[in-house]
Write a sequence for this structure.
């Protein structure tokens, strides 16, 4: 069966402050002189290898998994699930 | 009354709470490995503090899927008292037994210090002997203890009197400086709608003997002594 690489990115919703991102932005990036960078949100990145017939099915399997196992907490997180392209 | 202290890989406050329940309060208490836990054997369960599964992915999420938590959910449904302390609170949140989320502290640091919390309701099995408005000395020790919920979720907690403890200053008042981790509404602990599940970030087991307190008090004991009386 073919395998697909799926990326899962979990971020805080806007209503939940992100002290890690705020600290990176303020103490590292702005202080380091990159003032054009206006904000940073830190998150969590998971890369999964999934067996499936096709990309759509692979994405569906990961979506089901993320919802069933609460990979993200829907009260405070958004979760994006995307196919990693072959070129990566 | 027979209490189980459930041990997960990475629990590290299990022996402290076990000591207080068994040696200080003389409650029949067992330490139980999470894979061996059966809810029918016990009248109450304690989820202790620590770093279950290394806090991987999100503090409490992996332990929330332990078979032990199916038993805990069953016990909760039967109305048995359940306490989650620190990582135990995180596990209760992640297993859906308590609402909201516990995120990284505002300020990002791991905070380990004595704080003051105010009892907001005597209408729980755990706080029935503590006066509403009483201020307790108690230590916290966590990196992910910032309570967050949506606007409606917070409103419901307030309306249903589910906020059990708030961080306060020396005068018992809520202030920006008295909130150590940026929790919304200064929340330190909440209970379930049915009131038999309590989750709190502070550690009552570390404040249950005068010798352990810089204030020579034992304010955490009131919360745990409820288990001796049920």
């Amino acid at each position: 069966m073919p395998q697909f690489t799926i990326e899962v990115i979990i971020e805080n919703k806007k209503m939940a402050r992100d002290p890690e991102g705020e600290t990176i932005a303020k103490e590292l990036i702005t202080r380091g002189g990159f003032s054009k960078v206006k904000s940073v949100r830190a998150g969590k990145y998971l890369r999964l290898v999934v067996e499936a017939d096709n990309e759509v099915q692979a994405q569906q399997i990961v979506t089901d998994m993320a919802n069933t196992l609460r990979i993200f907490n829907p009260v405070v997180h958004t979760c994006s699930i995307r196919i990693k392209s072959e070129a990566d | 009354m027979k209490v189980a202290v459930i041990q997960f890989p990475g629990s590290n406050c299990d022996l402290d709470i076990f000591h207080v329940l068994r040696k200080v309060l003389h409650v029949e208490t067992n330490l139980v490995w999470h894979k061996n836990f059966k809810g029918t054997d016990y009248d109450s369960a304690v989820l202790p503090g620590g770093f279950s599964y290394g806090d991987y992915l999100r503090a409490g999420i992996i332990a929330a899927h332990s078979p032990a938590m199916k038993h805990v959910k069953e016990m909760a449904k039967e109305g048995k008292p359940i306490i989650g302390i620190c990582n135990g609170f995180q596990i209760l949140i992640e297993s859906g037994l308590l609402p909201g989320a516990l995120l990284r502290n505002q300020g990002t640091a791991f905070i380990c210090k004595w704080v003051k919390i105010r009892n907001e309701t005597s209408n729980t099995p755990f706080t029935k002997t503590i006066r509403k408005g009483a201020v307790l000395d108690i230590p916290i020790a966590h990196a992910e203890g910032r309570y967050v919920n949506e606007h409606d979720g917070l409103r419901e907690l307030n309306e249903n009197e589910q906020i059990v403890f708030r961080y306060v200053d020396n005068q018992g008042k809520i202030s920006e400086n008295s909130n150590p981790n940026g929790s919304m509404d200064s929340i330190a602990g909440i209970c379930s709608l049915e009131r038999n599940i309590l989750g709190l970030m502070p550690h009552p087991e570390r404040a249950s003997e005068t010798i352990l307190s810089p204030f020579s008090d034992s304010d955490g004991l009131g919360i745990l002594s409820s288990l001796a009386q049920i």
Q: What stands out?
A: The longest helix of chain B spans residues 14-24. Chain B has a mean pLDDT of 96. Chain B is about 20% helix and 25% strand. Chain B has one domain: 2-229.
